[in-house]
Amino acid sequence: MTTTVIKYVGRTTDFKGKTLWEIVGSLKNFGVGRIIVRSVFERYPEPSFMKIVKVETCPDEERRRVRVWVEKTFRGKKLEKLTEIYRTSYKPDYKLIPKHEEANLLKSIKDVHDFPDVILPRTIEMPPLMKKFIMKDHENKGMEILKEYVMPLSYNTSPNRVARIAEGDEKPTVQFTMGLGKPASPSLYEGVPLN
């Protein structure tokens, strides 16, 4: 008896589902009013889904894409503006919610408790080597040595962002540091100072 070995070639993917065109193309009125979900958003405990508002088909040369406007609910919060889906519409990561489950999904938003705001810091301490270079530079130039060695943080913008950046003297709820934090394997760092 011989065993068959199957070897997969190419990139792996975490997508689970159909392309948006496969879903809306098979529905009456292109699925306007129906609810879809992206599998990648199912990792969050809060409900994330999209209600189709408008659909435009694309020219023949872009058969795998479709332009869809949706009312998006991300992590239990409904976004104020309509969201356009075009660039990701070809990804096989969308699922259609059956009509009999739509009411439960919409009801689940009301069950989401208001989570405390996540406030991100505006600055972070400088890396140790950069701090030493600046201290040495200030010494050489006879300048006053700084008391705080911090630099501004820059965040990518996203309509899905649920955290906000601290304003003025507001205290952040999250802190980022230059340390290694808690290592996954502490035994690898025995005898090594981590600070």
From TrEMBL:
<dbReference type="GO" id="GO:0005840">
    <property type="term" value="C:ribosome"/>
</dbReference>
<protein>
    <submittedName>
        <fullName>28S ribosomal protein S34, mitochondrial</fullName>
    </submittedName>
</protein>
<dbReference type="Pfam" id="PF16053">
    <property type="entry name" value="MRP-S34"/>
</dbReference>
<dbReference type="GO" id="GO:0005739">
    <property type="term" value="C:mitochondrion"/>
</dbReference>
<keyword id="KW-0689">Ribosomal protein</keyword>
<dbReference type="GO" id="GO:0003735">
    <property type="term" value="F:structural constituent of ribosome"/>
</dbReference>
<dbReference type="InterPro" id="IPR032053">
    <property type="entry name" value="Ribosomal_mS34"/>
</dbReference>
<keyword id="KW-0687">Ribonucleoprotein</keyword>
